[in-house]
């Protein structure tokens, strides 16, 4: 259970605010106004603290509880502005469009690509194949992973395919993330960007049915992750 000690609002209010922010294209000031119309007076700075604190905790639970994914991956990056600079959001989905993993990095290079693949493999196991774009850094990252697999005796090497049209599924999937982040007008700190993106990805997984709902609404499913 995620602890809500020390906060001065009901847990349900906090969860509703966090879910609404990461699911819909609103700014903190928009959300402040929306809650005010519902009789909840809360400052936009407090809303920011709630998202940064609770979104990554709920996201970690979502990763642990989501439905199994396929072993054929599609990987690509999109862009998020942090402190006035474009940073790189590494993302991977399976062949069915189900979210696998995501990672925000300040640079698009071999180190970042290798770190992303290591993180995804630790969570989901070694994939049969990974489809990427023509990025040399992503190719080098996968080749580095294959070298490790070869010398550690895992047995199976990852098939790497660089076919642009096969990556359409993840390029389309980026659109939801970009639509939600657009009203945020960029992030002021890298850690808050990471936390917020984790919440957005969790809401997106719920939207795609990756978290067992058992008839619950999207918000109820999100709230259950904090229980």
Automatic annotation (TrEMBL):
InterPro entries: DDE_dom, Integrase_cat-core, IS_Transposase, RNaseH-like_sf, RNaseH_sf, Transpos_IS6. GO terms for molecular function: DNA binding. SUPFAM superfamilies: Ribonuclease H-like. Residues 64-226 form the Integrase catalytic domain. It comes from Paracoccus kondratievae. One of its GO terms (biological process) is DNA recombination. Transmembrane segments: none annotated. PANTHER family: BLL1675 PROTEIN. It holds the Pfam family DDE_Tnp_IS240. The keyword DNA-binding applies. Involved in the transposition of the insertion sequence. Keywords: DNA recombination, DNA-binding, Plasmid, Transposition. This is Transposase. The keyword DNA-binding applies.
């Amino acid at each position: 259970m995620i602890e809500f000690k020390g906060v001065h609002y009901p847990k349900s209010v906090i969860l509703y605010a966090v879910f609404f922010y990461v699911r819909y294209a609103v700014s903190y000031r928009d959300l402040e106004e929306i809650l005010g119309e519902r009789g909840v007076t809360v400052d936009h700075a407090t809303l920011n603290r709630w998202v940064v604190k609770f979104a990554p905790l709920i996201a970690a639970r979502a990763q642990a509880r989501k439905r199994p994914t396929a072993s054929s991956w599609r990987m690509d990056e999109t862009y998020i502005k942090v402190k006035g600079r474009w940073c790189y959001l590494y993302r991977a989905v399976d062949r069915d469009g189900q979210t696998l993993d995501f990672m925000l990095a300040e640079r698009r290079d071999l180190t970042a690509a290798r770190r992303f693949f290591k993180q995804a493999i630790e969570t989901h196991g070694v994939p049969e194949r990974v489809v990427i774009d023509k990025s040399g850094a992503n190719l080098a990252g996968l080749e580095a992973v294959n070298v490790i697999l070869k010398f550690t005796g895992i047995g199976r090497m990852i098939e790497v395919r660089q076919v642009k049209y096969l990556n359409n599924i993840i390029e389309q999937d980026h659109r939801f993330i970009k639509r939600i982040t657009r009203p945020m007008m960029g992030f002021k700190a890298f850690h808050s960007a990471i936390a917020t993106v984790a919440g957005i990805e969790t809401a997106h997984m719920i939207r795609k049915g990756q978290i067992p709902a058992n008839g619950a609404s999207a918000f109820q499913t999100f709230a259950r992750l904090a229980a």
